[in-house]
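#structure-requests
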Amino acid sequence: MRVADSVTSGTVSANLNRSFGRIHKFQTQLSSGTLIQNASDDPQGAAKSLILRSNIRNVEQYQRNINDGLGHMDFADSVLNDLVSAVTEVRGIAIQGASDTVNAQDREILAKQVNEVLEFSLGLSHSKFRGEFVFAGTETSEIPYEPARDAAGSITSVGRTLRHSVGFTDSTTAVGTLQSLPTPPAGNVTIGNQVVAIDLATDSLTDIKTKIDAAAPTGVSVTIDETILNGASVFRLKINGTSTAVDDNNVLARLGIDNIDTTNGIFRAVDDNIKVQLNVAGQDVFEGAQNPFTALITLRDSLINDDKEGIRRSITDLEAARSHISDARGVLGARTNRVELARGLLERFEVELAETLSNTEDVDLAETVMNLQREQSAFQAALITGQTVNQPTLMDFLG
């Protein structure tokens, strides 16, 4: 049976194309280092590869969360360590001040030292990590604690800071009108040591500021902060210098002015369905019946007043405050250990995922080089064979 020349040449050409395609495949694998260029190369392997890469990205994000969280926790621990050291130092001052060998003048000098530690402790409560207040719960843009001061500038008490008001588009229009209130509240509001009458039906932010300024509560100042949002001005009222505002008819509450919440936790995901609290709530350190602020203020005033009994009582308060801080630090340390353990597990898991991905995608260089060389040899042989196809010419037939 005679085979047509066109069939022979077509077969040779098709075989050459297939051989060249295999050469291209092996060259691409060698240059890219991966077996799978398209999902059609290995559908099952491609699906497995996508899942593995997704898992690796998740692990990398968890590791970023952990690194950020550990930075936050280490910083908080450092602040608490400084606070414990300060309280311990002051306890020594209290023991010295309670001694019968110390006179009133000496106690006044000791009181000045205690006052400096009080200011230092207040500064610690305002500590910021990467621009955010550490002890303000989730309200990290607000200073967590506000001191009330006497005419001489000495701290008389410390409490949670009052928030800014909600934003308003105008500072001169009555608040009730801006909020479209059918019956705007009115009432007497005690700010610091002064009572101020506020009526939201008629009072604007500017009016409220003017009234508080006129009442002149000790150590209190009021500002109207203006920011630009989407090209428009936004005005917020801020009361500084006091943490207390008795608001019987919810007048200030209607403005959004209230004590910030220092109790909320900040959480980070460290693994699937696992979250760990990073922050130490300010409430756990600076608040409560026996907190460092109250203990320091009591000791300072007792030293100034030459009150030996009050000084002795403050020793107990300082010890309780130190225990309070140490407990919070211990809880933070336990959380830190948990996060570090999670980081170690993720690092091992990432290595295992990378190894599995490599086994799924990566080429065997030696095998691929051998396959390429074998295919190139076959291709060259096919070319030589193809040259002998259709060799007869018209002269061969005539001969």
